[in-house]
Design brief:
Helix 7 runs parallel beside helix 9. Strand 3, helix 4 and strand 4 form a beta-alpha-beta unit. Strands 1, 2, 3, 4 and 5 form a five-stranded parallel beta sheet that branches. The chain is of the alpha/beta class. The chain starts with a helix and ends with a helix. It contains nine helices and five strands, in the order αβαβαβαββααααα.
């Protein structure tokens, strides 16, 4: 089967994630997913219109959709945000082997939230902060792992425009260069022009969304500065 056919949206093999990712949604979708998996291993389309919900439900949905069957066969997913994909629903969108955002749709990622803190003491607040940091780092790494292949395809598609985009957005290129310099990224056998990729993505964002790339690069710069500071601090 060609990649084009494999990753074409198929509404006949589709589940609809409408509403919060909770136990009720999982109860409704589980039989649908199992029937689709039994019918064949061609890709399942996941239509998303959700404000988010439980990460545990998200993990279970991904397990049902993508896990191996008794024969060891797996199934690809095509995720499509039809209206809104917020929070855990945005992570579901990102987890697809092929992800589609319709032009009118909204996608929102945010940090992991902690909802189980009552009767706060300094010790409990510190413990909650540590758990939140760990959860955020884990979620970020999972998201990066899911999207790595997609970013590589974008890199291959955009690299022919890197030089032109750098020239068009010279001021932005200088700001982004400062951020990458602060990270002291290691030299690898395969040299990737990450600066060129960042500028080319910026060049293709709408004016109202330019802040997304600017904020991401600013976070990268601060991370690089703090990492360098920590590395230079003597340990006793």
């Amino acid at each position: 089967m060609s990649l084009q056919k494999e990753f074409t949206v198929n509404w006949d093999r589709c589940i609809y994630v409408n509403g919060p990712l909770d136990d009720e949604l999982l109860k409704r979708l589980t039989p649908q997913i199992l029937r689709l998996r039994q019918a064949g291993n061609t890709a399942i389309t996941v239509a998303i219109d959700s404000l988010g919900g439980s990460l545990a439900v998200l993990d279970t949905l991904n397990g049902l959709l993508r896990g191996a069957n008794q024969s060891g066969e797996t199934c690809s997913t095509i995720t499509v945000v039809t209206n809104r994909a917020y929070s855990a629903a945005a992570m579901l969108l990102a987890s697809g082997d092929y992800a589609v955002g319709l032009e009118h749709a909204d996608v929102l990622f945010h940090d992991v939230r902690y909802g189980g803190l009552d009767d706060v003491t300094p010790a409990r607040a510190l413990d909650a902060a540590k758990k939140l940091q760990s959860s955020n780092e884990s979620a970020s790494l999972d998201l990066a792992d899911q999207m790595f292949g997609r970013w590589m395809w974008n890199y291959l598609d955009l690299n022919k425009s890197f030089a032109e985009d750098r020239e068009r957005f010279a001021d932005t290129t200088r700001l982004f260069q400062e951020a990458f310099d602060a990270c002291n990224l290691p030299t690898t056998a395969i040299r990737l022009d990450l600066l060129g990729l960042a500028v080319s993505i910026f060049a293709r964002l709408s004016r109202e969304n330019e802040c997304l790339m600017e904020n991401a690069v600013d976070h990268l710069k601060r991370w690089g500065s703090m990492t360098s500071l920590a590395a230079s601090t003597p340990r006793y």
